[in-house]
Automatic annotation (TrEMBL):
The lineage of its organism: Eukaryota, Amoebozoa, Evosea, Eumycetozoa, Dictyostelia. This is Uncharacterized protein. It comes from Heterostelium pallidum (strain ATCC 26659 / Pp 5 / PN500).
Length: 193
C-alpha cells in the first residue's frame, strides 16, 4: 500500500524539527542514533496527529540529569548499543492511556506511539520503568544498588565476618534479598512517621 500523500506531506513538514531534535538528542547521549519510522503503521494513524522527537529529547534530558547521571547514561547507551530507534504505532487496544511506550529489546529502543493529543510531553515516556539495568536487574533496582553500595559493602563485610562465609552483591539472590529487606524496612519506617 503506498504511503498516503497527506501523511508524506506531514512527515516532510516535520523533517526539519526531526533533524533538530535528533541532533539535540545526540548531544545529550553522546552518540547519533538512527531513527526508523514504521511508515505503514503511521499511514493510517498520522492524519490529524503529530509525532515529535521533542518529547523524547525532554524525557532523556530529565532522565540523564537525575541521581547518578553517569550510571544512567551508561545504562541507556548499553540498552541502545546498536544506536537504532524504531518508531512505530502501538496497536494494543487494551492500552488506552499510555501515549508512548518504550521497549528495549535486542539492544534497540522501540517507541510505540499512540498519542490522541497534539501536545505530547516528556511525562508520557517512562524511561525508568522500561530501561533494563546492569546485571539483569531492573534499572530502578540497579540505580538504588549503586546508591546503597557503600552501606551494603559494610553490612556484607560484617556479615561475612560473623558467618565466616563469603557474601557478595554480585550474587543476584543475595542482592535482591537485601534490596527487598531494605525496601520493606523503608516502607514500614515511612508508615510509622
Amino acid at each position: 500500500m503506498p504511503f498516503p500523500l497527506v501523511a508524506r506531506k506531514n512527515l516532510k513538514e516535520k523533517e526539519p524539527a526531526l533533524v533538530k531534535y535528533s541532533k539535540e538528542i545526540a548531544e545529550l547521549v553522546g552518540q547519533e542514533w538512527e531513527y526508523q519510522f514504521d511508515l505503514d503503521g503511521f499511514s493510517n494513524y498520522l492524519e490529524g496527529k503529530t509525532f515529535s522527537l521533542e518529547a523524547l529529547r525532554d524525557a532523556l534530558k530529565q532522565f540523564l540529569t537525575g541521581e547518578n547521571p553517569t550510571f544512567r547514561k551508561e545504562a541507556l547507551l548499553d540498552a541502545v548499543s546498536t544506536k537504532k530507534v524504531i518508531v512505530t504505532v502501538a496497536t494494543d487496544e487494551a492500552n488506552k492511556y499510555e501515549y508512548y511506550l518504550l521497549r528495549f529489546d535486542a539492544v534497540v529502543m522501540t517507541i510505540l506511539f499512540k498519542c490522541p493529543v497534539n501536545s505530547p510531553n516528556s511525562s508520557h515516556f517512562k524511561i525508568n520503568e522500561s530501561l533494563p539495568g546492569a546485571g539483569g536487574y531492573p534499572f530502578s533496582i540497579a540505580l538504588e544498588m549503586t546508591r546503597l553500595q557503600p552501606r551494603f559493602d559494610t553490612y556484607l563485610a560484617n556479615l561475612s565476618k560473623a558467618t565466616r562465609q563469603s557474601w557478595s552483591l554480585m550474587e543476584p539472590a543475595v542482592a535482591l534479598q537485601l534490596f527487598q529487606i531494605y525496601a520493606d524496612h523503608q516502607k514500614s519506617f515511612q508508615e510509622c512517621i
